[in-house]
Amino acid sequence: xxxxxxxxxxxCHRNEEQAQEEEFGGSANSISNYNDRNLNVCVKCKSNExxxxxxxxxxxxxxxxxxxxxxxxxxxxxxxxxMICPTDNVLVAFSGGSSSRVALQFVHEMQDKSQxxxxxxxxxxxxVFGVGVAFIDERAIFPVSSHEIDKAIQDFRSIVSxxxxxxxxxxxxxxxxxxxSSSSDGRDRLKNLLDAISDSxxxxxxxxxxxxxxxxxxxxENGYNRVVLGSCTSSIACHVISAIVKGxxxxxxxxxxxxxxxxxxxxxxxxxxxxTQELNRLCHLDGLKTVELHKVPYSGINGLVxxxxxxxxxxxxxxxxxxxxxxxxxxxFHFNSIPEKSDSNTTLATQxxxxxxxxxxxxxxxxxxxxxxxxxxxxxxxxxxxxNLQNHQTSSDIFGAACCSSCRFQILPKDPSSMEHFYTHLxxxxxxxxKRGGYGNLSLLREQIQDCLxxxxxxxx
Amino acid sequence: MEEADGNGKSMxxxxxxxxxxxxxxxxxxxPKTLEQICRECFYEVFEEEIHQVIVENxxxxxxxxxxxxxxxxxxxxxxxxxxxxxxQRHNYGLDLFLLSVDExxxxxxxxxxxxxxxxxxxYGLPLKIVSYKDLYGWTMxxxxxxxxxxxxxTFCGVFRRQALDRGAALLxxxxxxxxxxxxxxxETVLLxxxxxxxxxxxxxxxxxxxxxxxxxxxxxxxxxYEKEIVMYAYFKRLDYFSTECIxxxxxxxxxxxxxxxxxxxxxxxxxxxxxxxxEDFRISTSTKMPEQGTCERCGYISxxxxxxACVLLEGLNRGLPKLGIGRSRGxxxxxxxxxxxxxxxxxxxxxxxxTLDF
Lengths: 461, 358
Ligand SMILES: [Zn+2]
Ligand SMILES: [Zn+2]
Ligand SMILES: [Zn+2]
Ligand SMILES: [Zn+2]
Ligand SMILES: [Zn+2]
Description:
The structure holds two protein chains of two kinds.
Chain A: H1 16-28, H2 63-80, E1 89-93, H3 98-120, E2 130-137, H4 146-162, E3 169-174, H5 183-195, H6 200-221, E4 226-228, H7 233-245, H8 252-255, E5 259-260, E6 267-268, H9 276-286, H10 300-315, H11 319-328, H12 348-356, H13 380-387, H14 395-402, H15 405-410, H16 416-425, H17 428-436, H18 438-449
Parallel strand pairs in A: 1-2, 1-4, 2-3, 4-6
Antiparallel strand pairs in A: 5-6
Chain B: H1 10-13, E1 28-29, E2 36-37, H2 39-56, E3 65-69, H3 74-89, E4 95-102, H4 109-123, E5 127-131, H5 132-136, H6 140-147, H7 152-170, E6 175-177, H8 182-195, H9 198-201, E7 208-209, E8 217-218, H10 226-235, H11 255-266, H12 270-280, E9 293-294, E10 301-302, H13 308-317, H14 331-343
Parallel strand pairs in B: 3-4, 3-6, 4-5, 6-8
Antiparallel strand pairs in B: 1-2, 7-8, 9-10
Helix pairs in contact in B: 3-10, 8-12
The complex binds zinc ion (ZN) (5 copies).
One zinc ion is lined by residues 295, 297-298, 300, 306-307, 309-310 of chain B.
């Protein structure tokens, strides 16, 4: 081929610095030394046979080294970001797929180790953190047979109960519970809500936000103080591209760090440095059972992004890492670290650990405003629009103005009566969030100047 | 294009009126908004949007001399046409020039230069052509003869960028306007993410670049969709040249460009959203481009002792054309290169050869 990109080092937009970056990127994920060309032994322990299949990156480890390398990435992420402390109670979000299956397994192994340490230690100074598991039942939305889901839930129960003690509780909660305490009413409300959205990508994304709200609800009602997600490099790479495509470049860096503490219960991503391929492989190697339940292929923008990233990864096996690493260099938000505890319950060991990894104490809280639908920090133009609100507005108008432009485009109905309808079906936690945020401030301001406003037609419920 | 896409609906839509003027029959679906509008309204919104971009971003000042990078392709041809229209209509007070680079590629550049020469007459804009032969002593044909088809893009890209600056200096212009459109900029945002180039990511959406360099460059088409440019050229019957460079046959589109076209199909706004993301990225000021100095040999801006063009030229003149092309490569890089070659000819970017259609 006359000029393909690999022969075109300095064309268009490339330069040296960038090429160096790329070289670095290529080796970022491999520990191995490529001078060592002996293909028949594991590159790490130099004794066992490497596992077959797989790509160049992980195909040269033996099963044990592969496993310990993967666990090592998880452990490093947990420790260096203070994700889990001995006094914590951790809720693992579990879907049945390989990522959350590995997340559960690794959290369990970590708990198991600290349990053993606890049993062995004399002074019993370090308590063992608690673990629970949450499964969001989405049969109300997805065309999966109830029989199939019931069977899967049975499987999940046996998976969770088969893990060594301490006992882990499995919370199975229907997604519609976020809309109403009554299940049938919840289903109706959820259906109404989703039907009001015309954009298929918007529908998928709202569902994602509702899933997070559900997890938050389970965590807060059951005394958990961390939510563990199975998000891995591959899924985060997809999120990076979709966020860019949806115009969410401002809020993107907040979504892809190890810690996301903008929620009532902080969310952590300990598998951020693991590839989907690796997680699948571990499930395969260790016989970890996975159940793909709600695996309806994405449509719309999310579908395009996911096949694009798959294609890129095929073309270059380090592409997903590069995407996440690049986006990781965007400046995170103040909420991207575990908030410091005000009480001095943190043990000495934890403090020592924090010191070791040089974790900075939380920056002073910045005055970020958040979109009530997706909880993204709002950019300047969103805030500007909000402050330019006219006087004669309904609650749903005010709510709409408080949303980010991406949600306004792909989720909120354009036509005022549908918007009104949509607004009345929104889950309570979401409306509450809006009131706490800018929208609440706005109504507060409005109350103060109420007597000077000519029209009193707006409804402030 | 007019009504070809209405499968079955075309009968119904036949008498539909333009949704802007409500007077004339709608002749096209506007790619950016999917509004059905008439030709006249299309011309008007197309030109007016560009005018607004120019005004809001203060791209030009009255009395400035502006060179339009003219390749003869659709983007630069439409840019030349629209800029000269707007300059008259809104009294920008600009002296406009066409600036072309003659790489010396028989069968490609000589033909496209004929187009630019016709544009010179059609739009009444003075044309300056700078050639690789004059600037560097080598034509692209001669370079290819010496180094083969591999790596010639390196020369293309480096030489053209500098040639444009030198041409602009000869014309004594204040600024260079290029035809980069919204699709190009969206593609660049994605490419910089895919390649890990945070420094470029932070400035690739700037509408004016190189203000610290010899000649600032600006992109009046930053928010203009490629499809609308094609539509405008088509309806206005503008005279442009559409053959690909023979040394960089773009028989395929790059991954990123294809992705953008797919996105546009289901959500036209995605192109603008990508640019918006690029503008909104939170990038700390410490991620800057390397300090620019000047080339010790030719005085052109360079972060190294010699600029890239001088290094390449030195190689050509000493009969060592590989000089300056590769860097010292480790085994790791060879392995990666091997993977790329096995996958085949498809690359992630769409314009292999610098931007031939600047
Ligand atoms: Zn080994
Ligand atoms: Zn939002
Ligand atoms: Zn019209
Ligand atoms: Zn080329
Ligand atoms: Zn030089």
